[in-house]
Structures are given as structure tokens and as C-alpha cells.
Amino acid sequence: MSHFDAEGQAHMVDVTDKAVTDRVAVAACYIKMAQETFDIISEGRAKKGDVLGVARLAGIMGAKRTSDLIPLCHPLPITKVALDLTPDATLPGVRISATVKTTGQTGVEMEALTAASTAALTVYDMAKAVDKAMEIGGLHVVLKDGGKSGRYEAS
């Protein structure tokens, strides 16, 4: 657990001596909802506007603000944030994937997780008037690449 010093105190990890490398992380989650809510969102009939478009922007903003939200995260020069919000009738709901890239000394897993969860929370916020029982779940890192630890892919 690199976020604790020898005395067990929380601290920000010193990345000064780490190599600057290209890094990428992909995180995913989903939001389940009632069929009526799914239809409203997928047909573009939500009273608050374009739910998926606003959620995509919120996810991008969330990635950029990760170090403001997670106390020991380093502020990073993010070079790319992309979100895919895909309606899935089998849930019913929306599957969310967030990809974050940087060239730096530490990875962007937390930024990708924050982007995906912020997008899901935004979908909830925009549709809660018609469906308070929506469920957000499955948040996880799908892919992480770059840096000393190399590549990780979820099974």
C-alpha cells in the first residue's frame, strides 16, 4: 500500500523518480433503469434534454477534476478523455465506458473510474424524476497500460 508511510500515515506517493511514459486506462460501469426510462432516454424525450450528451460532458469534467475529489491523487496533464454511453435494451439501461490518456509519471485509472461514475450519476440525475429506482453498478478498470507495472486487462 504505497499511500502509507512507515508510521502508517497517509501521504501522496512521490513519483519524482518514475519514468514519464504514455499511459491509458479504461473503466466501465452501467446504469439499470425501468423500461419506460430507457425508452425516454433512448428516444431523446427527457425533459432535461440530451441525457447521454450531458452525461458524456460530465464524465469528461469528472476526469479532469479527479485530483480535487480523491485526496491522494496527483493532478495530471490529461491528453484525452473519451466516453461511450451505449443504450442496452437487455439491461435495460446504459453501458458506460471511459478512456483516459496521459503522458506522465503515474497512471490514469482513477480518472477513468471517476469519468465513468460521474457519467452514470449524471444519467441518474437527469432521469430521477421518472425513475428513482435506477441502479448504478459494475464500476471497474477494464484496461490499464503504461508505466512500470505494464499492462492489465480485466478478465
Topology:
Blueprint: E1 21-32, H1 35-42, H2 51-64, H3 66-69, E2 78-88, E3 93-104, H4 109-127, E4 135-145, E5 152-153
Antiparallel strand pairs: 1-3, 1-4, 2-3, 4-5
Helix pairs in contact: 2-4
Catalytic activity: (8S)-3',8-cyclo-7,8-dihydroguanosine 5'-triphosphate = cyclic pyranopterin phosphate + diphosphate
Function: Catalyzes the conversion of (8S)-3',8-cyclo-7,8-dihydroguanosine 5'-triphosphate to cyclic pyranopterin monophosphate (cPMP).
Protein name: Cyclic pyranopterin monophosphate synthase
Would you kindly provide a written description of the structure presented here, covering whatever features stand out?
The protein has 155 residues and is of the alpha+beta class. It has one domain (21-146): 2-Layer Sandwich (Alpha-Beta Plaits), CATH 3.30.70. It has four helices and five strands, in the order E-H-H-H-E-E-H-E-E. It has helices spanning 35-42, 51-64, 66-69, 109-127; strands at residues 21-32, 78-88, 93-104, 135-145, 152-153. It has a five-stranded antiparallel β-sheet. Helix 2 runs antiparallel to helix 4. It is elongated. 35% of the residues are buried. Catalyzes the conversion of (8S)-3',8-cyclo-7,8-dihydroguanosine 5'-triphosphate to cyclic pyranopterin monophosphate (cPMP). Belongs to the MoaC family.
